[in-house]
Amino acid sequence: MITRSEFRHQLEEIDETLGRFSEKTAKDIRALALALTGDADTIDEVLGGAKSERRLRTAIEDGCLDIMLLQQPIAGDLRFVSGSFRLVSDLTHIDEMSRDVAYLAKSLPAEVSAKLKEHLDFAADRVATMVEEAVEAFRTTDVDKARGVFAMDDDIDDIYLAAEGVVVDLIKASETRAKYLPELLMVAKYFERMGDDAVRIADWAVFRATGAREMTKGE
Q1: Based on C-alpha coordinates, what's the Rg of the chain?
Q2: If we measure between CA atoms, which residue out of 124, 88, 122 comes closest to residue 105?
Q3: How many CB atoms neighbour CB 159 within 10 A?
Q4: Rounded distance, CA 41 to CA 48, Å?
Q5: Tens digit of each residue's pLDDT (9 = 90 or more) over 101-132
Q6: How far apart are CA 88 and CA 164, in angstroms?
Q7: pLDDT, tens only, 210-219
Q8: Which of 36, 186, 187 is nearest to 109 (CA)?
Q9: What is the rounded CA–CA span in Å between residue 205 and residue 28?
Q10: Most CB contacts within 10 A, which of 37, 91, 106, 144?
Q11: Nearest to 197 by CA among 60, 55, 94, 119
């Protein structure tokens, strides 16, 4: 068994790594707005983030497993460790979806992406903010901040519905680039799914603070 001070240091390392993971994920999401204009360097930068994601994920998972198996934490520490383990899954999923969007950006003509530019620019910034706020809420046990993330998800749902309407109208108008429109709508759907994952992260913040989740009780 390690000393209490060493145990606290392990917890702090996990917390700090969660912060770095959040920063990396939010940065990549915001970069997607530029990637969708066809910027090749930005696309490659997002696609190249897989190694960094794996390092961060492994560091957190290994730290959580070490504490759970060797230290048997209780009460608040247990909620932090178990919640951190779940956060890694959601952050990883968001990170993977960012790369999926970057792959789509490679093949989507910039003039097609431009048809949803306002919607996608807003979605990229809002989802990135949701990720940052959700992880910060977890790290600081700020339930009000977590609930703010729940509220922001309505904006992402509205953006997707608006994007869906635009794409349907373009298809009806026999848009010359119509073959790309399903992929464009998929980009909007990815942002909606990222928002859903951010909500789950925020719900783990509520769990850490209260011992119960509010939004995703059955998951």
Answers
A1: 19
A2: 124
A3: 22
A4: 10
A5: 999 999 898 888 999 999 999 999 999 999 99
A6: 30
A7: 988 888 655 5
A8: 36
A9: 22
A10: 91
A11: 94
